[in-house]
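Re: Re: ligand-bound prediction request (bumping)

Still looking for help on this. To restate: I need the protein modeled with oxalic acid bound, output as structure tokens. Inputs repeated here so nobody has to scroll up.
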Amino acid sequence: MRAPGKAASVATMSARSLLIALPNTAVDVFAAPFAATSPKLSLVVHGRDTYALENIAYAFSFRPPPGLLKSLPNLRIVFSVGAGVDGFLADKDFPERVPLVRLVDHTLARDMTHYIVLQTLMHHRRQRQFDALQRERKWRQSFPPRRTEDTRIGILGLGAIGAMAGERLRDLDFKIAGWSRDRKNVRGIESFAGDGELESFLAQTNILICVLPLTPQTRGILNRKTLALLPPGAFVINVARGEHVVESDLLAMIEEGHIAGAALDVFAKEPLPETSLLWRHPNVTITPHVAALSDPQASAQNVIDGIARYERGEALINVVDFARGY
Ligand code: OXD
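Reply:
Sorry for the wait, this slipped through. Here it is.
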């Protein structure tokens, strides 16, 4: 069998080829580390190389074209370039017999934490308001200070990223709580768990940070009903997926004054359409899905380590549980 495609070259075949299925702009940067660290692994690029479907043992992707993975009869492992795996779960034909390994990486959690701390402090220290005053050359010290000890930060999702961000913000003296599916034990972070505790978690949160995986249970979790549970003046930071937020509800609640504003790195539709009202809202900070970019070296190493484990007959780590969706 031959894969359809532009077929610019015929890659060297081997029964253990790694198929890279990424947008053209990302291929070179994510393929380069393999040549340096694992020169014997034969790489083929979907849409560029012609390859025999049966020769592909491993795949490396983020949002694979639907049905592509199913067409690979000897596929052994699928590796995600990034932390979020919703792009794979969206493929109804994902071959569930094949383990999907996600990226759990210190640099990713650290960079995400930088973004979260940055946006938290920008809001907490009213930096946007001072920026506006600077533009008008106005010296005004009258904004009432916010007391750090009285500011409660709530983190939706207490995995590797949520826990690291929570720990750093805890060390800055904020009061931190986290909400997750199962109860978590992180020093100095109050743990709320399950649907039954979402309401009390939200009711005490002044700055809400979303780092949840996108699953059918978490899609649209921030909507008019849940946002209304936040205390008046709450601020929302979303670094997870745009689909966690019902954008029109968030915008309406900012307009109504119940929500003070938001810092958003992810959107239901990306790139965010020019017509979106979010772009111009003075209380909304927008970044183009850059809170943390997967480090190509770390992502390639995750693949190389996973393949080595598999070939030594060892259990894989960070395998996605399809029932939970992460
Ligand atoms: C990720 C992302 O999930 O880049 O890694 O959004």
